[in-house]
Amino acid sequence: MKNLLVTGGAGFIGSNYVRLVLDAHDDVSVVNLDALTYAGNLENLAGLEEHARYRFVRADIVDQAAMESALEGVDVDQIVHFAAESHVDRSIEDPTAFIRTNVIGTQHVIDFGRRRGIDRMVHVSTDEVYGQLGPDDPAFTEETPIQPNSPYSASKASSDLLVRAAFHTHGFPAVITRCSNNYGPYQFPEKLIPLMVTNAMEDQPLPVYGDGRNVRDWIWVGDHCRAVDAVRERGEPGRAYNIGGRSERTNLEVVKAILAALDKPESLITYVKDRPGHDLRYAIDDTVISSELDFTPSMQFEEGIERTVAWYRDHETWWRSVKSGGYLGYYERMYGDRLGQS
Ligand code: NAD
Ligand code: DAU
Fold this sequence. Notes:
By secondary structure, this protein is α/β, with parallel strands linked by helices. The protein contains 12 helices and 12 strands.
């Protein structure tokens, strides 16, 4: 049995990854360590509470002692590190939490992994560390210089450098992934796609920043999780792997696709003040991961949007509770008698 520590497994991508790993591997057990910030929601993992190969522990990676005590007596062979502050707009408002979790927290995860002598850590990073592209620039490769533009991407770039340094200095067996924009089930409705889907369902305005011509590459969250798992199993320590969805779209194209899927009018689109320092375009060259690890994304964007819209339509209680903040009591309701225990 491989004992896998997943950090941030109560968030959007982490919860999808926990489900994928438990389904795909009978010989992997998962300990999900998460602080349950505003973005962490145990309802994302509903149904796994009694799973024989799964357990949840609550701890903050910034608090080394708390992390160590939550994992006392727990075997850990590998780590997949998702825990982070992840929203660019929040980092512009208040960068401190990003430095704490993404930089200091990542160092603590590395230190914990070194103390335990783990055989693999996957550090889940982002394509935003490369900065932005012009309309006709070639896509980001793993050799593109690191040039982050927002406090969020600067904090993620810092964490990448700490991971790199741990490999170089100590031979720590870490691998970095840099993925583009994810979408799909359980995404917190502050990010573009779930915000637009849920606003449209409520006939609320859809706030498009600037002129809506910024371009992102969109990947189905399940494809990202498969790629992370391929890197965990077959990636080479010390390397970074780009992951993308082969689906570049302008924000306006994305929003119009959502409105069409919901049969809602384009008059809901409202242009608002641009995000400061708004990166123009991200695009991924995925030659390395496709040729070396045999990973290619499977979901077409048009089908992924239909599925995402269907998921939010079928999970209205989930997103209404998230939008109202009502989910924040879930841990106490589900685990109240086990609070403070691992
Ligand atoms: P998310 O915001 O949905 O989830 C983050 C999770 O981390 C939450 O469960 C939160 O409670 C937990 N967390 C935050 N601070 C913590 C701390 N100090 N200690 C322990 N847990 C803490 O994020 P996401 O969108 O699922 O992103 C996951 C990872 O993937 C992040 O590292 C992000 O940078 C990276 N990433 C995200 C995308 C994307 O499009 N969302 C793309 C590429 C990379
Ligand atoms: O590229 C990977 C990154 O993608 C991840 O590392 C981040 O964690 C993730 O949040 C995401 O960052 P973005 O800033 O690209 O995602 P966001 O959903 O915030 O915005 C996507 C685009 O949509 C961006 O160009 C800004 C725009 N936007 C966003 C919001 C929330 C709007 O026009 N209106 C909005 O209300």
